[in-house]
Amino acid sequence: MQDQARIIDGKAAAAALRAEIGLEIAAIKSAGGSVPGLHVVLVGDDPASRVYVASKERLAAEIGMNSVAHRLPAETSEAELLAKIEALNADDSVDGILVQLPLPKHINSGAIIDAIDPAKDVDGLHPINAGRLAGGKEGLVPCTPLGCMLLLRQVLPTLAGLEAVVIGRSELVGRPVAQLLLQADCTVTIAHSRTRDLASVVRRADIVVAAVGRPHFVRADWIKPGATVIDVGINRLPDGKLTGDVDFAQALNVAGAITPVPGGVGPMTIACLLRNTLTAFRARRG
Ligand code: GUN
């Protein structure tokens, strides 16, 4: 049997990225400038969203950003939320705006995302930023896909020519990560729920990105020996434990490198949000 796969440590990579951004903010501060401002908006009290928003708020503050969380009641109307977004758009001290998803059902998420100033859209979800990404132009890129790419580059210095299979076609992960892999000159396949013979599609891949949202969906015998596996899934099992989309224990015996859950892609998402906020700050304020 081959050696066990290298486990890609997303927690360490995220801490290193945050430290790097923290140093840049300290330099901005010591030069007498105002620091980047990240504003996260949470509507309602979904327990998972509350935890995510608290982490974003804390980690942004920890590296010296002006970190503000706006917690609005579940009954907030779409018009009220739009007014909040307009106020943040108009406030020059706000560099990044993130509206935590999912929103309550009575609010049209698309209308809210469309209202965010694309220059402050640190989630990279505004159609202008999605279009820029699809066109291979500079813009703000969704945080989880960006995190996947940074982790991939830790183990694969050259991505050009590699076969990449992305499983999942969501706006938040599947589509944008496929665009980034294409920009890196991979040969990209996007597989989804209607893909025929998924196992044999995945077996071609030098890089597998699993973003399905189903525990242990990707089986070890689908993975090409030596492939790099990025597991974006965060699934809660009945016993309360978190697990990814990949059968990690078995995949360890086949893959060349693999991200764990937790401790893989997850921590990179917030670190990339902070990076996007710094990027937006630099683009807006020079
Ligand atoms: N909910 C789960 N993931 C995300 C994300 O990346 N951005 C936002 N805004 N909401 C989320």
How would you characterize the overall build of this protein?
The chain has 286 residues and is an alpha/beta fold. It has two domains: 33-117, Rossmann fold, CATH 3.40.50; 142-266, Rossmann fold (3-Layer(aba) Sandwich). The chain contains ten helices and eleven strands. The longest helix is centred in the first third of the chain and has 21 residues, at 10-30. The chain is globular and about 55 Å long. Bound molecules: guanine. Guanine is lined by residues 98-101, 123, 143-144, 172, 269.
Mean pLDDT: 97
Main sheet record: 6 strands, parallel
List the domain count as a whole number. 2
Low-pLDDT parts are: none
What is the CATH superfamily classification of the largest domain? Answer: NAD(P)-binding Rossmann-like Domain
Which small-molecule ligands are present, each listed once?
guanine
Short synopsis of the structure:
This protein is α/β, with parallel strands linked by helices and 286 residues long.
